[in-house]
Write a structure and sequence with these properties.
- The protein is mainly alpha-helical.
- It has a single domain, classed as Arc Repressor Mutant, subunit A.
- About 60% of the residues lie in helices and about 10% in strands.
- It is built from eight helices and five strands, in the order αββααααβααββα.
- The strands form two sheets. Strands 3-5-4 form a three-stranded antiparallel sheet. Strands 1-2 form a two-stranded antiparallel sheet.
- The termini are far apart.
Length: about 170
Amino acid sequence: MDDLPDVAHVYRWAIAAEFLTARGTKIVAGRCAGDLKRDPLSAWFKAATTLLEHGILDGFQRGWRKSYVELLDAGAGPILEAILEVGGEAPLTAIEDLAWEQVARVYSYDPDDDADRQHVVRLVKAMMTQFADIGTLTCQDANVVLTGLGNALASAAAVMSSDEHLD
């Protein structure tokens, strides 16, 4: 797993989404595996919401990362919601700036610290790449544009966050 972090991420994601199940030393089809063939849109939705819940920046491995990565992960859903609210398209630089402002404020970083800012920018770009990989958005002319699936996931993220506020 350490040698293939991308494979490890997909494996953990598939386990969390219940597409796979680990039984002892065997990996078998999980409870939701049949949905991949029977209802691919439902399976995609399950995978995408699982990714939001666990953290798009590989939140399956909590504890080994800087704590602000979890803060960024928690903001993934709200980022999609915000893009949807402004018409489904936003400049990537605006998303990077907002993420950096939040991290700098919460962790009392110097807002002018370019090294820490660049690390946050790399993480935001990794997040956008993950979203693009699952078909949620595209990057066009330095803008992030939600796809139809992205609109659905942004709406689901809004519902998920409003449910959290009710708890």
